[in-house]
Amino acid sequence: MSRLDLRWRGWSWYHDEQNQQSGHFLDFVVDGTSLCDILEPGMVSQLGSKDQLLTGLLLETPPSLSSGRYELYGCLCGDVMCGSITVAIERAGDRIVWKDFAHEDGEAVYKSGFGEAGPFEFEIAQYRQALLSWPLKPESKRARKKPGLWIEGVNYDHRHR
After folding, report:
1. How many domains does the chain have?
2. How many C-beta neighbours within 10 Å does residue 22 have?
């Protein structure tokens, strides 16, 4: 049986001297290992900005993606069309199973390249506790809340042009 935890993780984005930013996001950690490191180090979790993401991971609402899968990591902008790492989640008795990790772009699901990830089985009570009791946000006097992320920069326009 695997253990799920959430941990704040730092990220930074640099386009040029006027457009740079850093902050933190909640990372999914399974058995002490960051899934972001295994799956896609360049993406961030949107957990906290999308209510349907949390309720979906808890299997309280159906998946928001047309593929029937759940988003774990994606682009800073939060748009699945930029690419997301998704997973199939099912309940099996007193367990929650994450399996079939894939890259998804809103049009297609690409399952190759994720062979070393999962499946992961979580005891349902520990799984729910991990998702419902997030650790406190990192402290920063300059930080402000932006959907899904804890941001310390102020110049980043998250919309793609």
Report:
1. 1
2. 16
For 51, list phi and psi in degrees, rounded to 5.
-55, -35
Whether residue 161 is contained in a domain is answered as: no
- The 3-state secondary structure of 57-86 reads HCCCCCCCCCCCCEEEEECCCCCHHHCEEE
130 within a domain of the structure (yes/no)? yes
How far is 17 from 38, CA to CA, in rounded Å? 30
Pairing relation of β-strands 95-104 and 84-92? antiparallel
Domain span at residue 92 reads 4-12+25-149
| Domain assignment present for 83 | yes
Q: Which of 64, 56, 114, 65 is nearest to 90 (CA)?
A: 56
With respect to residue 20, please indicate whether it lies within any of the assigned structural domains: no
Q: Quick one: tokens of 94? A: 């007193």
pLDDT tens track for 54-113 = 899 999 999 888 899 999 998 877 777 788 899 999 999 999 999 999 888 878 888 777
Q: What is the pTM of this model?
A: 0.78
